[in-house]
Specification:
alpha/beta
């Protein structure tokens, strides 16, 4: 595989950006080598600056559920941007996308558009604190909620701990309001409510944790979180930036039929453009400025070009059997992995999959992932690149199947996996 142009671009990028990138995982440090600079994408395929072609399962980390450069999304973007790219004022497109979402999602009554998933989560946390008049939040080790201060926190050594910052620059005073517990541990959650009775504003969880492996939770556990939040007048936040509109139009809330108090979304609703969203009941959302006293604003919130892209993409997602067909494709891919290797599994839900080098039947918490297994993924990733298969450059990241993946793409991918796995086992 040629890499001369990507290597030259990366060398120049390192003089402009920290680590040569504008988001850390892109630097390929988990898998080694030089990051590929992508030149174009179409359907399920991408091409790098050196002209190498790949079948893509990263999909810009999830939002490209229709594949790259979908013509209906492109047409919507072109038509809209010809009238202007931003106004800092309301447009009819905001109403149109909101109606499309709300008329097909019973789990939220009112929404607010923002510009990223991180911003959506940050705003949801502030809303929960403003609504409950409480300060502390509970999060789970192994769930990622963006890079806002109160959520860049990892667990300490106890059952229930105030978190330790996972980033320099996060004040201890902020960390001291974040309680971190392990996933799939009911006793830890109960203990948190005993220790901090009437102080917890919200529990936030990825109901389908997909940023640190695919840590599929039991429905009974999610229902337990719903019940204990209700009992303690604490809000339950589902962070569905990844799972929203991915496992179904109503995301994990619909998949498990559990009503959270606030839901955050992102990725897919922007059609590949920057967008985020949070929503709740009309009562809770009435606390947001200018209706209420919880302040949140954004110059590019509801950006017309992003709204148009989202309308085009979500309209396609509402086609009959769209999600059924996506899941069938994903299962077809997995079923064609013919190699028999111990300590290897593929976990999946809907059109999300995760490759894990493990002998465990289920992995439901971050602590169950063996860090040593990542050395196998490092080899796998390199060998797949050489064979024209692109996965996100970290063994902790999930993969995504899009509507654009063809049966031929999936069969070729499975074949290349078999060849690459032979190299891993050597």
């Amino acid at each position: 595989m040629k890499r001369e142009k990507s290597e030259a671009l990366f060398a120049k990028a390192q003089t402009y950006f920290p680590g040569g990138v504008n988001s850390p995982v892109r630097a390929f440090r988990s898998v080694g080598g030089t990051p590929l600079f992508i030149a174009k994408g179409k359907g399920a395929h991408i091409w790098d600056a050196d002209g190498n072609e790949f079948i893509d399962y990263c999909a810009s980390w999830g939002p490209l559920i229709l594949g790259h450069a979908n013509q209906k999304v492109i047409d919507a973007i072109k038509q809209t941007v010809e009238n202007g790219s931003s106004f800092g004022a309301p447009t009819a497109l905001e109403n149109e996308l909101a109606e499309l979402i709300l008329s097909n999602n019973k789990y939220v009554e009112k929404i607010r558009f923002v510009s990223s998933g991180t911003e959506a989560v940050m705003s949801a946390i502030r809303l929960a604190r403003g609504f409950t008049k409480r300060n502390k939040i509970v999060k789970f080790e192994g769930c990622y909620h963006g890079h806002s201060d109160s959520l860049l926190v990892k667990a300490g050594s106890g059952l229930v701990t105030f978190g330790n910052t996972s980033s320099a620059g996060v004040p201890e005073s902020v960390v001291n309001d974040t309680i971190v517990v392990s996933l799939n541990n009911e006793e830890a959650v109960k203990q948190a409510f005993i220790e901090f009775k009437n102080q917890i504003a919200c529990i936030i969880i990825e109901p389908i944790p997909a940023n640190n492996g695919l840590l599929l939770q039991r429905k009974e556990y999610l229902k337990f979180l719903r019940d204990i939040c209700t009992e303690n007048k604490t809000l339950l936040i589902f962070d569905e930036v990844v799972s929203g509109f991915r496992v179904g139009f109503t995301g994990a809330a619909g998949y498990y039929d559990i009503q959270p108090d606030i839901i955050t979304y992102g990725k897919i609703i922007g059609g590949g453009l920057p967008v985020g969203m949070y929503g709740a009941s009309a009562e809770i959302m009435s606390n947001i400025s200018p209706e209420g006293n919880v302040y949140q604003a954004g110059t590019l919130s509801g950006n017309p070009v992003a709204m148009a892209a989202g309308i085009a993409q979500l309209t396609e997602c509402l086609k009959p059997n769209f999600y059924i067909d996506l899941e069938k494709k994903t299962q077809f891919l997995i079923s064609n992995f013919k190699f028999q290797i111990l300590n290897f599994k593929v976990f999946s839900i809907g059109s999300i999959f995760w490759i894990a080098f493990t002998d465990k039947k289920n992995i439901r918490s971050a602590e169950e992932i063996n860090p040593d297994s990542m050395k196998h993924f490092r080899i796998l990733h390199k060998e797949l690149l050489e064979r024209g298969i692109y996965l996100g450059p970290s063994g902790y990241e999930v993969g995504f199947v899009s509507e654009a993946h063809t049966e031929a793409d999936l069969i070729k991918t499975a074949k290349m996996f078999g060849e690459a796995m032979e190299e891993v086992m050597k």
